[in-house]
Write a structure and sequence with these properties.
single chain; alpha/beta; 3 strands; 11% strand; globular
């Protein structure tokens, strides 16, 4: 499990590193209420590499679109 909710000072690169270091074990990811423009469709591609992910919470992540969810 990885809880990354409401961390306005964390950069997209930081999120990427945390996610990519856990791709084989991550089953739960909460990234809600991160307003950064770096939390976007490009990051969703990396999240898509987490093959065991069962729960993804993106409430309030306004820079992720339907297109990002389809990647």
């Amino acid at each position: 499990q990885l809880g990354l909710a409401n961390l306005p000072n964390l950069k997209g690169e930081d999120f990427s590193k945390l996610i990519l270091s856990s791709t084989d074990k991550l089953t739960f990811l909460n990234m809600s209420f991160n307003p950064s423009k770096e939390i976007n469709n490009a990051l969703m591609i990396k999240i898509g590499m987490c093959l065991n992910l069962r729960t993804l919470i993106l409430t309030g992540c306004e820079h992720i679109t339907d297109e990002g969810m389809n990647n």
